[in-house]
Amino acid sequence: MINDTISDMLTRVRNASIVRKKTVVIPYTRMNLKITEILEKEGYIQSFEIRNKLNIKKTKKVEVDVTNSLSNFEQNSSYLSDTLLKKSESTNAIKELKIYLKYYKKYKTNFYKLTGLKNKKALSDFKNLIKLLKGKQGSKKTPCITNLKRISKPGLRIYVNQKELPRVLAGAGIYILSTSKGILTDREARFRGVGGEVLCTVW
């Protein structure tokens, strides 16, 4: 049994992004659904869908009919006959959230053709500037989600008011809060003037 469904969701999405999976399946809860909707709206994932998974439980029921043979009645013997095996199946629909992760590609650039710089020092400074702004150059796909971190936990709840709403990387990331007006990002909570419980951070 999962005690903290939000931490379980964040861990699954984080691990799937690290190994570059296309999709990840998480248990369906109302809180997970609201957080997934925010991730889609903010552009961290492509899309998601709600699907039903059939949970099939098979049970065997054995019915035995004992009949005594008249010919062997004097010898106090009996035998088993008409053994019936009946299988009963009980199906329960379990909801799941299937999330389609989002990636972007970084392509290698020919700096000589791009800038026309012939001075090696100027070219080196330009390369360092590009790497600083865009990260290391390469052709591999990079996940849009760099990290997800759980803030408020079942053992330690963290609340903030509207004047103490935090910012992630000067606004580059988002905080997700549970407020009196629903599940909101830090920008939406700041605009509406409400505080609440800080669930997690995404960047």
Describe the structure.
This protein has 203 residues and is of the alpha+beta class. It has five helices and ten strands. It has helices at 5-18, 30-41, 111-115, 120-134, 186-192; strands spanning 23-27, 45-67, 79-101, 103-105, 141-143, 148-150, 159-160, 174-179, 182-185, 196-202. Strands 6, 7, 8, 9 and 10 form a five-stranded antiparallel beta sheet that branches. Strand 8 and strand 9 (182-185) form a beta hairpin.
Write out key terms for the chains shown.
5 helices, five-stranded antiparallel sheet, 39% strand, three-stranded antiparallel sheet, alpha+beta
In short:
GO terms for molecular function: rRNA binding; structural constituent of ribosome. The protein is of the alpha+beta class and 203 residues long. It has helices at 5-18, 30-41, 111-115, 120-134, 186-192; strands at residues 23-27, 45-67, 79-101, 103-105, 141-143, 148-150, 159-160, 174-179, 182-185, 196-202.
